[in-house]
Amino acid sequence: MIRWFPLCCTLLAGAPALSAHAQTHVQDTPAPAAGQDGALKTVRIKARTNPGDLPYGWVFEDQKLLQAALPAQARMVDFSWRITFTELSLPEQDAWTPQGWAVALVARDFEQDVPVARGGYFLLPALPIGRQGSTIMFNEQSLQGHMGAAWHLRVGADQRLPYAGFRQAMDEIQGMQNAIPVGHGGLKLVRTADYDALKACFLAPGGRVLIDATPVADASIGNCTILKFDPAIGAGRTIAFSGPLDIVTVVESADYLTQPDLPPLALAQATAPAGTGAAASDAAAGTASSNLSNLSYASNFKRQLRLQGSLAAPAHLVDFVWRMSLDGASEAQQDAWMPQGWALALAGKDFARAVPVARGGYFLLPALPLGRQDATLVFREPGQRHLIGAAWVVRPQEGQRPFLYYGQIGEAIDAVSKVQETIPDGHAELASLRTNHYDGLKACFLAAGGLVFVGDMPTADVTVGNCKILKFDKDHDVNEKVEFVGKLDAVTVVDTAPYLQPKD
């Protein structure tokens, strides 16, 4: 059975948008901003509408909490906020330099400029008690209800960093996360973020990151290089930054590393075209839907990248996909469900895009431009409130009959277990996914009569509709073939307990 789990949707659930103000896309991590002369300036602000404007009091309290959670002295990281740009690409954000004022504190009787560094990094100044009700205003359009949290890594003037310092920075950030109260909604994504890499941005192309004179990189974006932390690298080694260095931050690599190709399940049988045409215009009509399962795109796409990036199965033996939570459908009905026209659309103020959905309700979210990150997932079929399914698709080997070796079932289960281990204990939205006990396979066929052969024997612990459930036995011969006989639809890793429990 696919395990459904809740996903927070503060921007869509009618809660105040600012409840998510510090959750952030957390794409970068910064150095404290400073003006050229260090002085705060008065700025004249005309009336404007910016969804990213936030109340000063809430954000400043969160700033104090995060700064207080870091070591007072001899630390490796410093905290600052970052503008959550909506109209610039990631390389453009890194290269952005403020022209005139960029962030200002505004109240009825005063306006004060806040120094902002290249890349959009800044810290809020302390205001007198009478001005705590000020508004943080942004000159650049920014993401509604969100503020970027950034962690600047201290690098020596010689542009060198001991690898032990990188490890210390990770420990300091972990300590900060542990200090955030579990019930603190505004800093929830900061508390549960998986900071596991450094991002070195240079002022010009050609900058390189080296470990003991050897160039290293896990990814690059614009003039920036991403390097994941590797606990196997000795603390005595040194990271060097070659080129005019701008800033080094600690980030989540899942935000930058290339996601795997869409598995065949998510595309081969999909009926809804993506992009334009009748399906997209038809989907636009669904933007006014009151479907209780409608969800935020940005937070779910980030979780998708995290779960995909944590998979380490050999040759993509296992892929992660979402699954729709069809309301009122039995397991057999959901397995046989086929979309008629569009089933899922991404909808914003000025666009609607249909997402391919496979038989059974499986799908993956496509990457959207940064300016459309505030899109909503609109489901045509009624779904369970704020619930979405996580599914783990297994790729059988091709042959006269699709097959796996029995040991590969164990490898697939282990791959999923390793992903579960990367989910922080306090991650509320992924809590049930983290604790789910995956211990078998579910093989679904397009018609009745499909069989799973283990060796020469048709084998199944239970049959549900056109699907066979097979519980993994760790003592079984790992080299024996598991063949799928019939028109195979999908093979997924599941928790067999709900299928094997006796019915009332």
Describe this structure in words.
With 504 residues, the chain is α+β, with helices and mostly antiparallel strands. The chain folds into 2 domains: 11-255, no CATH class; 264-500, no CATH class. It is built from 11 helices and 31 strands. Strands 1, 18, 21, 23, 25, 28, 29 and 31 form an 8-stranded antiparallel β-sheet that branches. It has a 4-stranded antiparallel β-sheet with strand order 2-7-4-5. Strand 28 (462-464) and strand 29 (467-471) form a beta hairpin. It is globular and about 75 Å long. It starts with a strand and ends with a helix. Mean pLDDT is 81; it is low at 1-41 and 259-289.
Helix content: 10-25%
Arithmetic mean of pLDDT: 81
User: How would a textbook summarize the main sheet?
Assistant: 8 strands, antiparallel
Shape: globular
N-C termini distance: 18 Å
SS-derived structural category: alpha+beta
The radius of gyration computed from the alpha-carbon positions, rounded to a whole number of angstroms, is 25 Å
The counted number of beta strands is: 31
- When the domains are counted, the total is 2
What are the low-pLDDT stretches, counting only 5+ consecutive residues below 50?
Answer: 1-41, 259-289
Strand content: 25-35%
